[in-house]
Design goal:
CATH class of the largest domain: Alpha Beta
Helix content: 25-40%
CATH topology of the largest domain: TIM Barrel
Shape: globular
CATH superfamily of the largest domain: Alanine racemase
Structural class: alpha/beta
Number of helices: 11
CATH architecture of the largest domain: Alpha-Beta Barrel
Length: 420
């Protein structure tokens, strides 16, 4: 098998959803919504107070369908990152459209989603504190009793033994009580053992602890997701694939099985798929598509995803050269840059500038564009969807477009503030 990727490793993905796929997935099997009786349901878009986090449900469902079609066509598993939306309702929706489960990064995120009935969870991060590991063990037992499964990432011998000890206190007779993925550093420069011998040594430790089951390798290259050029992303994932192949080969040569390699993100998942090495994709932002991902050069091997998450804001002041909206940093994250103004037909093209915690400054994008009127609605595409969602208690789902749509549902952000 080649350990490098070429531009033609995958056939070009569809840029629009084929009619057959659209028909097969409409209407989508939405799960029960705990906020279905919210006073906003059935009201027109203009009644939504500002600032508010709004989902264009039509765009989101097209994104869901396109990713489902991609993974089905290529025979690869999807386990999207629910740390992005932090919602049990949306996790259930993703699983209803083909995902095998979801990823999270925090124990408390896993607990929140499990409380919402999500039974297949992977904490794709290291947990080492005794208190958190007790919670991990309790959650593993709960999911096991419900016929579900919990998995977790590890990257140290001490972490592996701490995990096994915590599990033994809660599930003493359970062989393979939890799936563990050895995380290797394939370029992220964050967690993970070095590829090769260090991962083999960790596999040996896991094999000596019957309460654990070696489920495979965690190989996520986060830095590659936001490299702007297709060739840059392809080269970065090519190096990651080589590291994975080396590590898997050495682990198997030592007598252990590597059932699965999991990783990938919205910026590169076509390349991980093309490698033939990865068996599972963890892409999450495809569901909403923030401004930062949209800044990447499009890869023809991947489907096109639409912006589906917006901050609705209102113009509260108009001055000589600028207007001011009521959506400051408290309503959107700025770690990946400021939001982009999403102009609807008939609205002026605007640029967003830093106005502080409560305000955004709006200026004409060109000399031909004017300023919005006092009270006008301004739609913002967040720079980074994950931490933006974490700033809100709820997401308001709109059907029929941002201009003339109607509120269909209000979705609770179950894992908001789930930091532990």
């Amino acid at each position: 098998m080649n350990d490098t990727l070429t531009p033609h490793a995958l056939p070009a993905g569809p840029t629009t959803l084929p009619p057959a796929d659209a028909a097969a997935l409409a209407p989508l099997p939405w799960p029960a919504d705990p906020m279905a009786h919210h006073r906003l349901v059935g009201q027109p878009v203009h009644t939504i107070d500002t600032p508010a986090l709004v989902i264009d449900l039509d765009a989101m469902e097209r994104n869901l369908a396109r990713m489902a079609a991609f993974t089905q066509r290529h025979g690869i598993r999807l386990r999207p990152h629910a740390k992005m939306h932090k919602s049990a309702v949306l996790a259930h929706l993703q699983m209803a459209t083909g995902a095998v489960g979801v990823c999270v990064q925090k124990t408390s995120e896993a607990e929140a989603l499990a409380a919402g009935g999500v039974d297949n969870l992977y904490i794709s991060n290291e947990v080492v504190s005794p208190g958190k590991l007790q919670r991990v063990a309790a959650l593993a037992r709960t999911l096991d009793a419900r016929g579900g499964r919990l998995a977790i990432a590890v990257d140290s011998t001490e972490g592996v033994h701490r995990l096994a000890e915590a599990l033994a206190a809660w599930m003493p007779d359970a062989a393979g009580a939890i799936d563990v993925f050895i995380e290797i550093d394939v370029g992220q420069g964050r967690c993970g053992v070095l590829p090769g011998p260090a991962a083999v040594a960790l596999a040996r430790e896991i094999a000596q602890l019957p309460i654990l089951r070696l489920a495979g390798l965690q190989a996520y290259h986060g830095r590659a997701q936001h490299l702007r050029g297709v060739a840059e992303r392809r080269a970065a994932i090519g190096r990651a694939v080589a590291d994975v192949l080396t590590t898997r080969t050495q682990i198997e040569a030592a007598g252990f099985t590597v059932p699965l390699v999991t990783g990938a993100g919205t910026g590169t998942f076509a390349q991980e798929t093309a490698s033939g090495v990865y068996g599972e994709l963890q892409a999450g932002s495809y569901l909403f598509m923030d401004a930062d991902y949209a800044a990447n050069t499009a890869d023809a091997a991947q489907p096109t995803f639409e912006h589906a998450l917006f901050v609705k804001s209102q113009v509260i002041s108009v001055q000589a050269g600028h207007a001011v909206c009521d959506a400051g940093h408290k309503s959107h994250a700025i770690d990946s840059g400021l939001p982009r103004v999403h102009a609807l037909p008939g609205q002026p093209a605007l640029q967003f500038a830093n106005g502080g915690d409560e305000h955004g400054l709006l200026r004409p994008a060109t000399t031909q564009d004017g300023l919005p009127a006092l009270g006008a609605t301004v739609w913002l595409v967040p720079g980074h969807c994950d931490p933006t969602v974490n700033l809100h208690d709820q997401m308001i789902g709109v059907r029929g477009g941002l201009a003339d749509g109607v509120v269909e549902r209000v979705i609770r952000v179950d894992a908001r503030g789930a930091l532990t």
